[in-house]
Amino acid sequence: AQIRYSIPEELTRGAFVGNIAKDLGTDVAKLAAANLQVLSDSDSQYFSVNVNTGVIMVSERIDREQLCGQNPRCFLHLKLAIENPVEFYRIEVEILDINDNPPEFPSDEVSLRIYELASLGARFPIQPAQDPDVGTNTLQTYHLSANDNFNLNVKARTDGGKFPELVLERALDREFRAFHYLVLTAEDGGSPPQSSKIRITIQVLDANDNHPVFDRPSYGARLVENSPLGTLVVKLNATDVDEGPNGDIRYSLSSHNSAALRQIFAIDEQTGEIRVQGNLDFEEATVYEIEVEAKDMGSPTMEEHCSVVVEITDVNDNAPEVILTSFSSTLSEDALPGTVVAVIHVRDRDSGEQGKVLCHVSPDLPFQLRKDYEHQYSLLTSTRLDREHVAYYNVTVSASDLGNPPLSRHTILPITLIDVNDNAPQFEQASYEVLVAENNPVGSVLVTVSAADPDSEQNSRLSYSILRAGGTDPGLDPTRYLSIHPTNGQVTAKFPFDYEQTTYLQFHVEVSDGGSPALRNRTLVHVFVVDQNDNAPRVHFPRAGEDSATQFRISPSIVPPALITKVVAIDADSGRNAWLSYNLVEATDLGLFSVALRSGEIRITRALQETDPSEHELLVVVRDAGEPPLSTAVTLVVLVEEKGPEALQGSEARAADGGGLPPITLYLIVSLVLISSVSLVGLAALGIRWL
């Protein structure tokens, strides 16, 4: 069985809902004995049953909006259980709405921004109010406060919702009224009705419907030419009654201005200040007319134009100009005085006295200016030139006007002199003395001759050669023994020198430059061959074969210090290399004979005794004083016999006994003296040259 009750929401606890015993037609005592229980389908126990009376009562607060939201009908379901026998009854309680909630807007205030040029009839939705009640207790209508521009339109939806809209009935003008303040009221249909209000603030957004206006139609200024960069010309002022970007003004130079003018003047787009950013030149323009535009930042932008007239005052600001009509940067050093080097044109853009120009060059230079006619000069050579003295000139041409103060311009003309072959090569030395050790290696450098030519390039390219010259041997050709490198002047030997054949050589070295015609010069070279110890002494007396000895006979009664014989040797070298010494190295009896160190004389040192042997063998070594020394040995056999001293070489032995100098010895002595003298003279001359 099912029982249905209806109660309004928000009843107090204990409020009567229904009598279950009466509605079931059951005795109350029976319900109490049957262990009556009430079971709810919801989590909350909104109802309870008094088993003694069978009355169902409200046990908790019931909020229909919380239970069922916007559903038109709201029910709570209960189950009633009875034992002995078990029976179940379904109870349905309908919760009826009461007007306990007013309509509520999401906020107390809302702001709208409407463009002042919005079209009439434009609609602007307002967030609707919410009323959780249902039926006639929910939101029913809206009311708008009185105003001149807007009406209210309420849009009804199929689900019963009502949405308010503001409708623009009269055009807006921000400059007349920037803000509109309205009140919208929401009201339900309860009894009594409940309502709520929301304040609507409408900001009229500016439209760019006003153009900028300058405070004057044109501006004027006066500047001195060459005014410094950044000089203020004029400050413009324009206003715009619009606001925000529509009233924000930007200044700029109009596109009607020439590119040259835009390079001279600049305008600050924020402040409207026009300043100088380029060179003001009176000679180029005496008046500048600047077209300026002022634009607002609206969309679309609106603009206004004005003109600025700037007058330029002239000053003496132009230095003279030097223009080379003709100029040759190279000039032959043999150019005659009066040769034209350059033709110069001068001008000054100023006028009057400021435009008159005078030119001059330094009087210290071998150049001068000649005035041909007004504004033209010729640069001439004033003296003879010498490239070897000064090869390069920087001629400064100074041009000055007659302004006050005067302005000048200096132009440097670089002039390079072209070489002429007017200088012969010059050796560093008038003559060269060279000491060369004999047996020198083939190709060894004996001497390097060096010459210089102050000319340049081809005229200074030198070539060396050897010429035949007189020497110790008039028929001696130095080119047989020597060669010279044609460019570096190194003299080298083709063959080793032999002091014993050639002690001195003299020749000329000629140097010629590469000019046309070529110029030449000579130097004399003295070559002194220095002796080396390359010859061992040669024994000329006594003569003997390689494997034989020379025999001499002496009497047993010979009286010491009698001369037995003399060893004679010569050395083809000279100087110390030819200084000979004689030494008795071996003998049968070293105490019986002696050899003179320098003369080579062999004498007996004591009287012979009967116990002495009858044959004595002597080994004499002849050694020179070279480094290292060279030597030769000779073996003599002395026989003691009753006959007189008679050598196997009879005539030489007798000459030795006579005590006089043999011819060969005299020749050696004279040769040694001559060679030593020549060597000393050569060494002395070389030492003086080095000093």
TrEMBL record:
<keyword id="KW-0732">Signal</keyword>
<protein>
    <recommendedName>
        <fullName>Protocadherin gamma-C3</fullName>
    </recommendedName>
</protein>
<dbReference type="InterPro" id="IPR015919">
    <property type="entry name" value="Cadherin-like_sf"/>
</dbReference>
<feature type="domain" description="Cadherin">
    <location>
        <begin position="215"/>
        <end position="322"/>
    </location>
</feature>
<dbReference type="InterPro" id="IPR020894">
    <property type="entry name" value="Cadherin_CS"/>
</dbReference>
<dbReference type="Pfam" id="PF00028">
    <property type="entry name" value="Cadherin"/>
</dbReference>
<dbReference type="InterPro" id="IPR013164">
    <property type="entry name" value="Cadherin_N"/>
</dbReference>
<feature type="domain" description="Cadherin">
    <location>
        <begin position="428"/>
        <end position="539"/>
    </location>
</feature>
<dbReference type="InterPro" id="IPR002126">
    <property type="entry name" value="Cadherin-like_dom"/>
</dbReference>
<keyword id="KW-0130">Cell adhesion</keyword>
<keyword id="KW-0325">Glycoprotein</keyword>
<keyword id="KW-0812">Transmembrane</keyword>
<keyword id="KW-0472">Membrane</keyword>
<dbReference type="InterPro" id="IPR050174">
    <property type="entry name" value="Protocadherin/Cadherin-CA"/>
</dbReference>
<feature type="domain" description="Cadherin">
    <location>
        <begin position="323"/>
        <end position="427"/>
    </location>
</feature>
<dbReference type="GO" id="GO:0005886">
    <property type="term" value="C:plasma membrane"/>
</dbReference>
<feature type="domain" description="Cadherin">
    <location>
        <begin position="106"/>
        <end position="214"/>
    </location>
</feature>
<dbReference type="GO" id="GO:0005509">
    <property type="term" value="F:calcium ion binding"/>
</dbReference>
<feature type="transmembrane region" description="Helical">
    <location>
        <begin position="664"/>
        <end position="688"/>
    </location>
</feature>
<keyword id="KW-1003">Cell membrane</keyword>
<keyword id="KW-1133">Transmembrane helix</keyword>
<dbReference type="GO" id="GO:0007156">
    <property type="term" value="P:homophilic cell adhesion via plasma membrane adhesion molecules"/>
</dbReference>
<keyword id="KW-0106">Calcium</keyword>
<feature type="domain" description="Cadherin">
    <location>
        <begin position="6"/>
        <end position="105"/>
    </location>
</feature>
<keyword id="KW-0677">Repeat</keyword>
<feature type="domain" description="Cadherin">
    <location>
        <begin position="546"/>
        <end position="665"/>
    </location>
</feature>
<dbReference type="Pfam" id="PF08266">
    <property type="entry name" value="Cadherin_2"/>
</dbReference>
